[in-house]
Design goal:
It holds the Pfam family HET. This is Heterokaryon incompatibility protein-domain-containing protein. By secondary structure, this protein is of the alpha/beta class. It has 15 helices and nine strands. The protein has a five-stranded mixed sheet with strand order 6-3-7-8-9, with helices on both faces. A four-stranded mixed sheet has the order 1-2-4-5.
């Protein structure tokens, strides 16, 4: 099923109401209707867009995802008006809708009315002044959220997203594997203990070793892992659930467990399965280097988070953050700095004023 509103549905374009920037106002989203028509191979998503002051906002979940192609090709309905968004934005909302109950168990009280914050919709992308103001508030938006959803993306069509998580577990552990004491394992992750005690289930339920390798590559080659913005989004959020899949076909894992497994997957001495997986991949040098960079970038998240918790300075220095996130990927070079502002020491942060004009002038102004 594609994630596109019916092409024959005509609606007036949605027009944003301006935010009151001096009061710290933001927008939040609530999904009000989802209509799936398998025969027409289409999905209709209808949402409400709400205004609220950040310091008065009710519980909301902030979404972290990769934009992908920025072209606005997919239509959302907002009170009957049409709002065009990138395909990945549409797909993310569609999958979050289906995973809502599981995500609520992970991140907030089940049954609680929770709104969403997602940048492509909650920030008017046509208003440069608003974008600059909201970029300055990005750290607050994620740190004040009830939790964050890290939408990793989806595997190729026909592949089970759960296989990526299971293969990561199998690759990073041996039969005596136990989760660290400080990583909570709730009912949603009960399968981890079952699979770690019975590694033979992988061969029985997933398939041959080559399929493990494919599932691992599909998961960790996602662009989400390499985004510079993801570091701040994940480091500053209170609780984080990672979502992988598309629509009703999804898998959820807490970020704490995911990063623990990624750490294990890079340690062949801890795994009887590590070399079997890597030998089955037979990747070319470019693919191997891309995967290794993403693994290193992801491992930097937990290091930065630990340091921020241990230090009393309230942040890290800009140069230190740039060095640690050197493998990160940005579309706009300015984002390499802007994406770190929420983690910076106050003197560094206050010295930076985001400028998002499409044209970056590098000279003296003329009169």
């Amino acid at each position: 099923m594609s994630t596109a509103a019916p092409s024959n549905a005509s609606s007036a374009p949605y027009h944003y109401e301006r935010l009151t920037s001096n009061t710290g106002e933001i927008r939040l989203v609530q999904i009000t209707r989802v209509e799936e028509d398998a025969d027409k191979d289409s999905v209709v998503l209808e949402i409400d867009i709400l205004h609220t002051r950040l310091d008065q906002a009710g519980p909301y979940l902030a979404i972290s995802y990769a934009w992908g192609n920025p072209e606005r090709t997919h239509k959302l309905l907002v009170n009957g008006a049409a709002l065009l968004v990138p395909e990945n934005t549409f797909r993310t909302l569609y999958t979050v809708y289906h995973a809502a109950e599981t995500l609520a168990t992970e991140l907030c009280a089940s049954g609680e009315q929770v709104s969403l914050w997602i940048d492509a919709i909650c920030i008017n992308q046509s208003d440069i002044d608003e974008k600059e103001d909201q970029v300055r508030r990005m750290g607050q938006i994620y740190s004040q959220a009830a939790g964050a959803i890290g939408y990793i993306g989806r595997p190729p069509q026909g592949k089970n997203p759960f296989d990526g998580f299971r293969t990561l577990l199998w690759m990073g552990t041996d039969v005596s594997f136990t989760i660290r004491d400080d990583v909570p394992v709730d009912a949603a992750h009960a399968w981890i203990g079952e699979w770690s005690r019975d590694p033979g289930r992988f061969e029985e339920e997933v398939g041959p070793i080559e399929e493990f390798a494919e599932a691992y590559n599909n998961l960790l080659l996602s662009d989400w892992f390499i985004r510079c913005w993801v570091v701040q989004e994940m480091v500053l959020s209170r609780e984080i659930a990672c979502l992988y899949g598309h629509g009703s076909d999804f898998a959820v894992m807490s970020l704490d467990i995911l990063t623990t497994l990624v750490d294990g997957s890079g340690s062949p001495e801890n795994s009887q399965h590590f070399y079997a997986i890597y030998s089955a991949m037979k990747p070319d040098a470019e693919v191997a280097w891309a995967r290794n960079k993403k693994e290193a970038h992801m491992k930097a998240w937990s290091r930065i988070r630990d340091d921020l918790e241990q230090r009393q300075s309230g942040g890290l220095g800009l140069i230190e953050l740039l060095e640690r996130t050197r493998f990160g990927k940005v579309t706009d070079p300015r984002d390499r700095i802007y994406s770190l502002m929420g983690m910076m020491k106050e003197p560094d942060r206050s010295a930076i004023r985001p400028r998002l004009s499409p044209t970056l002038w590098l000279g003296w102004p003329t009169t």
